[in-house]
Amino acid sequence: MESMGKKKARPRRLFTPEFKAEIVDLCRRGDRSVGQAAKDFDLTETAVRLWISQAEADAGERAGLTSSEREEPAALRRENRRLREDVHILKQATAFLAKETR
């Protein structure tokens, strides 16, 4: 009864931009359907459809954020986190030096 209708979770995998572009190109040229490409390369159809949508947005064929526009907030969050760490270290150093000079 344990396996009734439940699939085992697939581990998260990372793919290179080149690999994604190759899969998108196969589907857009009509060499393979989305389902067939997903099956042939052991991918989910959802992932392939998202890659195709993103490629269309990057090419200006579809409304939505481009890859670079999606990356910008993540880069800003990383920079903000680093700057907060820098401020924290400077506060600790200031407190230490204030104690030493008394």
Question: Would you give an account of this structure?
Answer:
The chain is an all-alpha fold and 102 residues long. The protein has two domains: 14-64, Arc Repressor Mutant, subunit A, CATH 1.10.10; 67-102. 67% of the residues lie in helices and 0% in strands. It is built from four helices and no strands. α1 packs across α3 (45-58). It is elongated, with a radius of gyration of 23 Å. The chain starts with 16 loop residues before the first helix and ends with a helix. 6% of the residues are buried.
Extract low-pLDDT stretches: none
- What is the SS-derived class? mainly alpha
Specify the CATH architecture of the largest domain. Orthogonal Bundle
In whole angstroms, the N-to-C terminal distance is 72 Å
CATH class of the largest domain: Mainly Alpha
| Estimated radius of gyration | 23 Å
List the helices and strands and how they pair.
Layout: H1 17-29, H2 34-40, H3 45-58, H4 67-100
Task: Please describe the structure with a list of short key phrases separated by commas or semicolons.
single chain; 102 residues; mainly alpha; Arc Repressor Mutant, subunit A; 2 domains; elongated
What's this entry about, in short?
This protein has four helices and no strands.
